[in-house]
Amino acid sequence: MLLRLFPTLGLLAALASGPAAARDVPALPALPHAVSSLGAVECDGYLYVYGGHAGKTHTYSTKDVIGTFHRLKLDGGAKWEELPGGPILQGMNLAAHGGKVYRVGGMRPRNEPGQPSDNVSVVDAARYDPKVGKWEPLPPLPAGRSSHDLVVVGDKLVVVGGWQSRGRGAAPVWHDTAAVLDLSAKEPAWRDVPQPFQRRALTAAVVGTKVYVLCGLDAKADAHNRVDVFDAASEKWTTGPDVPGGRIGFSPAATVIDGQLVVNTSEGNLFRLTADGKEWEKVGTSGTKRIVHRLVPRGKGVLLVGGAVPALKENATDLEFIPLAPNRQSGGGQ
Question: How far is it, in rounded angstroms, from Cα 233 to Cα 263?
Fold first, then answer.
């Protein structure tokens, strides 16, 4: 019952940070499932969501992870449209390019409910074409990967972070390379690019040719606020300013609004990276504090999609809209 209050809480938060903006954005229907660790992306005016963890926290089975696929029209959509699903997966994301939706990797439990967890990271990659309503396979990853993120830079898919879960009794392998697939190539093939970190449960977003990789957990389960920046043009790495906050490194969510990076952390704060890339400014606060959720742009604000709400020990179903404060350069920031 508490989860059904979230749209109201989200509206109150939106009113507090921008009442006019909040009133201008119609409410959207709740997700078809209460899920965390899902994939989500906006493509040609639709919000697409795939898979995720629909069970109790830290419970994994073929029932707790789903492989459903839906979309919702963001302008006036009143009902989710069910699309052809696929394998049960969590710990992956979706990306959009050329009017098509991509998914790469993810974690799939092999055990039935009530049995010991047996989780494996998959190599699968696929592309969904809304015009024909079907998935088509892409070249598989060089190795299984989950708890990573997926972005598009130009014509390239870029996979960053993550680990390879190898099933019950086997230690995971932490990835120290990013994986790149050139979609414009005559015969696309994945290639590895050195990565100066080993982290999972992170988030990533693209500004220009730069992939910003934010936060995450290391092999010691330590959370990081660190920001690593991969320039896809030069294939060189640099660093950006740490994301503000305390222990907020586990599974935040990021997106890009008007060419600027925006992140939502487990403390509920929304920060935007300044245009010069040197500092963060607080631009909003969410009504619910979430982890392992997704952030999707909508107008001058963002939608929080799914995720776990630690305070309630439940997954969220609502799409919470948060209008963002104007840039400080325009005289209205914080």
Answer: 24
